[in-house]
Design brief:
- This protein has 1 helix and no strands.
- By secondary structure, the protein is mainly alpha-helical.
- The chain is flat, with a radius of gyration of 19 Å.
- The two termini are 35 Å apart.
- The mean pLDDT is 92.
Length: 65
């Protein structure tokens, strides 16, 4: 592997990693603001509904991929 290819590899890896980190941080900020806005009981209900949704989504996708 040449030096130019290695440099491109690390630049692409850094680009993808920085994008992933950006979205993780933005999701964390939105989650914190949402929890603060809704309060403990409403946010718990929201999290419960999301959990049920994702369980049902994973069951419905079984065999479709």
């Amino acid at each position: 592997m040449s030096r130019a290819n290695l440099k491109d590899y690390f630049q692409n890896t850094l680009y993808l990693l920085s994008g992933r980190i950006f979205f993780l941080v933005s999701d964390l900020i939105v989650g914190l603001l949402l929890a603060r806005y809704l309060g403990p009981s409403d946010f718990g209900l929201f999290a419960y509904i999301l959990a049920i949704f994702y369980v049902l989504l994973s069951i419905s996708k079984t065999g479709l991929d």
